[in-house]
């Protein structure tokens, strides 16, 4: 069943055409990535989905219903963790529920059982500044999924981490995802990350962004931690070639 | 957070040693100079004489200190409320901000020497003109600090909140206000050092009692020792307010100390 469905969505900001006829969908429990050169308009797609931008052509539906401005349908994880430095970890991860009007006590009760899985048990009462980058990112992810929205929108969530921590986080994340099967839309420019984590990948062109390729990743899961299969290598090479031609056009 | 408090106290003492030594030596040099030069106490009284006179006149000084404390606290409270209310108004209405901000800036260019007698003329010898003058002098640093503090909010946090469906009020309460707190306390510390001085000045221009009146009378009676006694009390009041504000800041902004030394 399709959770998120974008049909021929176009966006023009000022005089610049940013998105051109973008059609994509995410099925229930599916992990979909959007891969594109930087500045292509990946984050514009997220701005549409979070309601930050409401001038567009085309249709965006969730569970078959057009999304309405002012009513949140998806939860969003920004590139930097955006944890509030003045809130303890526990109060940071319950933020989304609090904004939804859930009482603090109830929000804490909902989130508490998840702390352990997210490697944050025992750190609830720490401030973000006291945690490592990986832990902060896990807290940001918990804050995202705790909102219980239809689709998790992840904007390069591992981009700011060092290489080692990133691999650890991807491994951890794949394990969590396999258990929970959140419907996920990931934006990234890291080909290896996209191939490693996704069921399906859309490739965006340079601006104005169009979808120039859609591929399915056949490799069995879990993929992280085991040797990369030849099919994935081939896919990575193919995607990289497509992306490089795009950046080439741009100069 | 993990720093134990006795350790912290020790560190604070160790850090304040140079200040204590320098202040103390200044007084010692002053005392020695007065004794060696045999200068008249009508011109420059020694610190020991100032302390002696403080003790001898303690009742009179105390009677005149309470109105100053009252005026300072009342004026500063008003200033705090006005600064907060205005800052919120200005944050929610950028137009009003552009309209009113120049007026606030101009209010800070008015020379107190000229304004204070006028305010006394308009509002009499009671508490009102003092409260107004203190508020006039102290609200601006706090207002500027708050307005700048709101603008310092991490835009990622704001867009995150909006993506969660937060209203403008919610974004203000959950992100902009807490982001402004470190700025606010910086402004508060500046303001608070002006408060007592403004109160004394307002009294000096026209009042029935207060440290300002003590200073005025002592000056007219050629009693520099009593002038200095009032000055010492006024300094101590300011220092006390300063310390209180620092303690409140420590308590409210504990998150800023978190993560230090990690």
TrEMBL record, chain A:
Boundaries of every ABC transporter domain copy: 4-231
Key word Cytoplasm present: no
Superkingdom: Bacteria
Coiled coil: none
Entry's Gene Ontology molecular function annotations: ATP binding
SUPFAM superfamilies hit by this protein: P-loop containing nucleoside triphosphate hydrolases (SSF52540)
Family, as annotated: Belongs to the ABC transporter superfamily.
Protein's name according to its UniProt entry: ABC transporter ATP-binding protein
Record lineage: Bacteria, Pseudomonadati, Pseudomonadota, Gammaproteobacteria, Oceanospirillales
Automatic annotation (TrEMBL), chain B:
Pfam families: BPD_transp_1
Principal location listed in the UniProt entry: membrane
Top-level division of the source organism's lineage: Bacteria
Entry keyword Transport: yes
InterPro entries: MetI-like, MetI-like_sf
Signal peptide: none
Membrane topology: Multi-pass membrane protein
CDD domains according to UniProt: TM_PBP2 (cd06261)
Ranges of residues in domain ABC transmembrane type-1: 65-245
Subcellular location(s) per record: Cell membrane
Keyword Transmembrane: yes
Membrane-traversing stretches: 12-33, 69-92, 99-125, 131-150, 183-206, 226-248
The entry's keywords: Cell membrane, Membrane, Transmembrane, Transmembrane helix, Transport
Family per record: Belongs to the binding-protein-dependent transport system permease family.
Protein name: ABC transporter permease
Organism: Marinomonas vulgaris
